[in-house]
Structures are given as C-alpha cells and as structure tokens.
Fold this protein.
Amino acid sequence: MNYGGGGHYEESGELAVLQRLARLWPRAEPLQLIDAGANLGDYTVSLAAVFKDHPHARIWALEPARGTFAQLEKKIAACPEKNRITTLHVGLGQREETIPLYASTDAGQSGISSVYPRRLEHFGKQLHPSESIQLLPLDALCEQKAIQKIHFLKLDLEGHELAALEGASRLLREKRIDVIQFEFGGCNIDSRTYFQDFYYRLAPDFALYRILQHALDPVTAYKEEQEIFITTNYLAVRKDLVLPSA
C-alpha cells in the first residue's frame, strides 16, 4: 500500500498525481500552487514543468532554512519556468513566530531538518539547534501576497503539517483550497500528531487518498491501523471537484 513510499517524488507516485491534477483545472485559470517545505527545489521545478501549459499558473516555493533557501534560489534561477516561481524565505505554522530549527551536521541532510528535536539515534543520526526560522500561518501569508485561492498546496514540513493546516483555518473554512498533499510518517512521532488528526480535520470537506506508485487508494473511513509512522504521502481533494482519471 506504499507505506514507506515517501521517497523520491518521481518514484513515489507524487509526480503521477501532479500530472493528473494538471488536467483538473482549465488551462486559462490563474492557478496558485504552493510548495511548502521546498528544500532544494527539485519538486518545485517539476511542479512548474508539469503545469507549463497553464500560462497563468504561479508557483510559490517556501523554505525557512537559511542555507537551504540559498540553494533553492540558485536552483530556481536556472529553471526554465523561473519567471513563474516565487521563492519565500519562510515556513508555515499555526501562528506567526520565530522558533529554533533542528538540523543534522551531516552534509546533504537538509531534508530531515525539523522544528522538533527529533530522536533519531536509532538511525545513527542526531539533530541539533542550527538557527532560528520564521513561521507564518498560511492565512496571513495569503493575505500578504493577495492570494485569494490556493489550487494546490503541498506540505512537506517534517512533522509540522498539522500545525500548518491549523494556520490555514480561514482558507479551509471558506473553501479556498482545492487540493492538499501532505506527508505523514516518523516525524509525526516527534510532533505527537496522528493520522486521526488529519482525517477528522479534512474528511468533512475533502476526499482523502493514499498516494500509491501507480494509483490513488481512497481512505473512506478512519481506522487505527492507519497509524503507520513510515513516510507516506496523502492527497486531499475537495469533495465538489472531480479528480481526472489516471
């Protein structure tokens, strides 16, 4: 069922999901696509490429870590779709605040940085306070940037995804987010959040799916056995939308 299939987006089924979503909205629609937790920008570049036939699509790439953001900017500067991508040196959370970021001292490990002091000794890794980062609630960010509607929101926040959803309460209440992709896994042990939290937060308005390598598996009811803390990607599609077939 692709539990543990949260690896590279080209192999996890995430890229196939983007290709389906590109057929969900009319090409003339001014899309707003947000990659929160953009890290080094590989996913952002692919997101822009998949939506290249949507001339009015705008991509926002959010990354709060200083060094990682610098690398993200370089990646986007070399991207053919760079004029449609805006990079923001900020993360998402429940409230506006400046908090510590915990990171590994090992090179190439920026993808596991978290606002939680994760216990990773069982993987032979340790996270240490590395810098202070700025977080904003999505409601406030959209108000600042005059974003009226989000068509696609990707959350890869190393355990802080639920807090980001709480920071988007007004957008969710007003049905101004069409599709959300979020990651769930080992980071949620450290943030003490559960799949149950996501299910009951989103299920009233969204159809939920587990992203498989070659399909989507509907999550029609909550079950305790879904609490599997191995990286898995989920998709939430507003119920009044019809997801294109694979």
Q: What stands out?
A: The radius of gyration is 17 Å.
